[in-house]
Amino acid sequence: MASKLRTGDTVLVIxxxxxxxxxxxxxxxxxxRRAVVEGLNxxxxxxxxxxxxxxxxxxxxxxxISLSNLMLLCPRCNKxxxxxxxxxxxxxxxxxxxxxxxVVE
Length: 105
What we know:
This protein is mainly beta. The chain folds into two domains: 1-73, SH3 type barrels (Roll); 76-105, no CATH class. The protein has strands at residues 10-13, 22-29, 34-37, 42-47, 57-62, 65-66, 70-73, 80-81, 83-87, 93-97, 103-104. Strands 6-3-2-1-7-8 form a six-stranded antiparallel β-sheet, with no helix packed on it. Strand 10 (93-97) and strand 11 (103-104) form a beta hairpin.
């Protein structure tokens, strides 16, 4: 099943520890049904140092969030929106906001 979110979309977290926060999608992992959102779901990782490459220590980075916990923010009405598909006259398939009908591209 194809994801209705794409890299670069602005999303709202609707469940979990970051509920209510907004962020930009950095990466979508469709086979796991997850997405990495900029600045959200931060986790600490202990990393071994590699000479000349990186310093050892504890770093914070974004972990993937389940797609079911994210909703696309419509660029026009700026509300979390369910996403529908629509075919245009030229045959292209586009995503659209179910609330206001705006094409999201």
